Structures are given as C-alpha cells and as structure tokens.
Amino acid sequence: MKINKKGFTLIEILLVIVIAALSSGLAIVNYRANDANRVLDNNAQLVASKIKETQTMALNGGLVNGQSNAEYFIQFNDLPDLPDRVILNATAGGIGDFTLDKDVDLTLESKDGMGSATNSSLVIRFTRPRADISFYIGEGILDENNAINDEEVFIVLNHANTDQKRFVVVNRISGRVDIKSSL
Description:
Elements: H1 10-60, E1 63-64, E2 67-68, E3 71-77, E4 87-90, E5 96-99, E6 104-110, E7 121-127, E8 132-137, E9 147-148, E10 152-159, E11 165-171, E12 177-180
Antiparallel strand pairs: 1-2, 3-4, 3-7, 4-5, 6-10, 7-8, 8-9, 10-11, 11-12
C-alpha cells in the first residue's frame, strides 16, 4: 500500500516558524545597533556643519544685523542641570541655538593633555579677515588664561546607551574640520 504524502507535517511547519522568528529577531537587534551609529553620525554632522558655517561667515564677512563683524564665535556649553541633554549655543551672530539628540553626551578634549573637560564651555573664535582660529575653554570664556594653544581640539560625542563615539576634530592651523570614529 502506497501512502500519498501531500503537504507538510506539523513539525516542519513549526521548524519554519522558529527559523523565521530567530531571523527577524536578529534583524531587529542589528537595526538597533545601527541606530546608535546613525544618531552619532547625524549629531557629528550637525556640529561640524555649524562650525564650518561660522568659519564661512568669518571668511566672507557675513552680515549679522546689517553689519559685518570682526570676530565670529561658536560656543559649546555642556550644561550640568540637563544631564541627559547637551545644548550647544552657536552664537556666531545670528546662527542661533541647536540641540543635540537626547542620547548624545558631549565632552571636550585637546591633544595637550587637558583631558576631558565636562561641564565646561568651549569657544571657537574665528577672526577676520583670514578666519584665524582660537580655542578657549573654561569659565571666563574669552580670557587669554583659558586659551588652548594646541593645534587641535576634539569635540567628543558619546552615545549614552553604547560605548560608541564620534570625534569632531577642529584644526587651529589649517582650519580643517573632520569627523572621525576613532583617534
């Protein structure tokens, strides 16, 4: 007697369902890991573009309130009263304020070994006509005692839920602004 086997057994169907569930679970975990990368990349691009915008205004003598300024500033404040959020004030005469994503923390570093300066302010000053760059960090912002004479300053963006970082590197000599995932 010949048995006609049409269709699938219950075990075969359950096996396919388990494999599909595992595959979709791995895809969701992988998507969330990439989400942190995307958040950091977007915020690093925002910081770098605001620095470049300020630098361009200094080079071009951009008008602010109908007049050209001799100096343009961008100030980064790490505010201790908002621990889950960093507000960066771009005060280059009318650029305005912008805020980083709530999952991104900001620290400031330089090569000269000042280490990590949290709850501080960093000011990048562009002076006309060549948009010369000066860095200042600390409480008395534009005090020469707080000037950083290092060639580069690193604005470090840390993701709160992962150990991932992005570095916005500003070179004082060349004026170059880069984004790096490691140093």
